[in-house]
Amino acid sequence: MNAIKLTGLRKSFGTVEAVAGVDLEIADGEFFSMLGPSGSGKTTVLRMIAGFELPTAGTVELGGRDVTRLAPFERDVNTVFQDYALFPHLSVQENVEYGLKVRKVPRKERRERAEQALASVRLTDFGRRRPAAMSGGQRQRVALARALVNRPKVLLLDEPLGALDLKLREQMQVELKAIQREVGITFVFVTHDQDEALTMSDRVAVFDGGKIVQVGSPEEVYERPASAFVAGFVGTSNVFTGEVAKALFDRAGTFSVRPEKIAFDGDAGAPGVVAEVIYAGAVTRYVVDLEAGARVVVVEQNRHGSPGTGLRGQRVRLSWHDEHVIEIPERKEPSDGA
Amino acid sequence: MTLSGSARWALRLFMAVGLTFIYVPLLLVLVNSFNGDRTFAWPPRDLTTRWWSAAWENEGARQALLTSVQAGLAATAIALVLGTLVAFAVQRFAFFGRDTLSLLIVLPIALPGIVTGIALDSAWRSVMGDLGIGKGLFSVVVGHATFCVVTVYNNVLARLRRTGTNLEDASADLGASGFQTFRYVTFPLIRSALLAGGLLAFALSFDEIIVTTFTAGPGVTTLPIWIFNNLFRPNQAPVVNVVAAVLIVLSVVPVWLAQRLAGPEAGASRT
Ligand SMILES: Nc1ncnc2c1ncn2[C@@H]1O[C@H](COP(=O)(O)OP(=O)(O)OP(=O)(O)O)[C@@H](O)[C@H]1O
Ligand SMILES: [Mg+2]
């Protein structure tokens, strides 16, 4: 059975159509990510699943039950908010117990479950503190414990790692994934960080302008983007169209080659001039102006130390394997049946 | 901003003069209420609590104190209910005329008391009188409520603005009903704002005289009005002093408390 099923979901705020027809099924126990640029409607979809926003049209089903018109507290869903929304006047322990308290779980059980939940996010001795006296990462984990303690069927997370520094972020990504595997509940994870979506998810939905433009495994979305938008948004991408495409690939259409799939090649390949060399630690990015009339990005691992900037202004030839050329379907409308 | 040395000294001087003008007379009243000399010779030669017991025995003063407390409590109660409701309406809902409502609520504190007084007076003459509701304690309470509502409204509104609706969403998300959310989240978050607003409202009501003059019925005398009536009777002077001292304490303490309540929490109410 599906944990979540959205059918023809729409939401307008005045004249703004924030969500313009979303159909989606999310399986039980799935780690599902919603990826998309700012303002593409991810939060609004999440808020409709949680029950904070009434859809303008369409239905929300949770575990096969239509909950479109139910209040948030009538849904078996919990949310980790982007700003955590911890209650400032309650201690960490009381924050975590809150969901159990309002559901009238006896005090003793409440305490035990809250302690377990805090232990699972490695905050065992923090129960007595106030949220204000904790770091961003610790607060984030309290928010997670507060949601998990209720054992919801579905956990919604709205950019929960957005406020963390890179190190903590990567650490929390691993932890979140581990927790999800342990408790086995469905995670719906909103992010606009493509790396995060690709590394953590079973499946990813890419949003644009209030619609889902592609749903698939991280591999599918990355290796076989359904549109130029997806190719451009998920990972850096070199997209070729029109005359350039014809010159490079000998046929009409829209094509894309990922930067890491392009190699410098002494003799064969497309000629061009290196315009920019950008050292980025593990890799170096080269920007090359092709004679065919396109600017492409090439990424190389720094296997032999820093490459230096000597290549700037040099003439080079670029080559790639045919199987790495992604042919992008032309102007395919998103799958909303409209 | 940096100031030159002389400007700084001038500012300090102005401040000292200003504070002196405000607080020395108040202090004088307090000290004189214990002054053993009937003509308030200065400096006081001996201290006595005679005037305090005389004031306590004075039937008129006691009645006025009771009336003032009653009017203050009633006006504060009305202000708490109305001010909170309007603050919620204005902060949480978008509706036609919202800005106008907000202005209308705040306006009475800017209007001269005499205007409010005259307006209420004529309202009572032309409408309420015909309805069989004469002037009395009730009309005083209504008059005071017009400006007391503002203090509660402003305090609660500021608090609601700062806390936003996220916490209430989180509460509902965790399974709390609307009532539970109010009880466990919303109310605790606005509690100190309510207390601060209420204390200020009480203090405002307690020493109000202009609106009171216009709205009080014949038998109703509040403490400030009693003072005013007895100010120029020489043999009442010591008692007036005591009553004024009481008035000072009863209006300053709530304001001081309100400041303390609104102060420290203002910074730490958001996670
Ligand atoms: N309460 C609201 N009133 C009016 N417009 C809104 C409201 N909430 C969202 N919108 C609009 O709906 C669109 C989608 O917003 P949404 O918050 O869902 O985007 P998002 O994908 O979550 O973006 P971000 O990555 O920046 O969080 C935006 O254009 C936004 O301005
Ligand atoms: Mg968002």
Biggest sheet features of chain B: none
Mean pLDDT of chain B: 85
Total number of helical segments of chain B? 11
What is the tally of beta strands of chain A?
18
How much of the residues of chain A is beta strand, in percent?
A: 25-35%
Mean pLDDT across the residues of chain A is 87
Order of H and E elements of chain B: HHHHHHHHHHH
User: Helical amount among residues of chain B, as a percent range?
Assistant: over 70%
**Looking at the chains present, what oligomeric state does this protein adopt?**
heterodimer
Spatial strand order of the main sheet of chain A: 6-7-8-3-9-10
Share of helix among residues of chain A? 25-40%
Q: Uncertain segments of chain A of ≥5 residues (pLDDT<50)?
A: 333-338
Work out the count of structural domains of chain B. 1
- The coarse overall form of chain B would be globular
How is this fold's topology laid out?
The complex is a heterodimer of chains A (338) and B (271).
Chain A (H helix, E strand, L loop, with lengths): L1 E12 L2 E12 L3 E5 L6 H9 L6 E6 L2 E2 L10 E4 L11 H11 L4 H14 L15 H13 L5 E5 L7 H18 L2 E6 L2 H7 L2 E6 L2 E6 L1 H6 L4 H6 L4 E3 L1 H8 L4 E4 L5 E2 L5 E11 L2 E8 L4 E7 L13 E5 L6 E3 L10
Parallel strand pairs in A: 3-8, 3-9, 6-7, 7-8
Antiparallel strand pairs in A: 1-2, 1-4, 4-5, 9-10, 11-12, 12-18, 13-17, 14-15, 14-17, 15-16
Helix pairs in contact in A: 2-3, 2-4, 3-4
Chain B lengths: L4 H28 L17 H8 L1 H34 L5 H13 L2 H16 L8 H27 L2 H8 L4 H29 L3 H6 L7 H8 L6 H32 L3
Helix pairs in contact in B: 1-11, 2-11, 3-4, 3-6, 3-8, 3-10, 4-6, 6-8, 7-8, 8-11, 10-11
The complex binds adenosine-5'-triphosphate and magnesium ion.
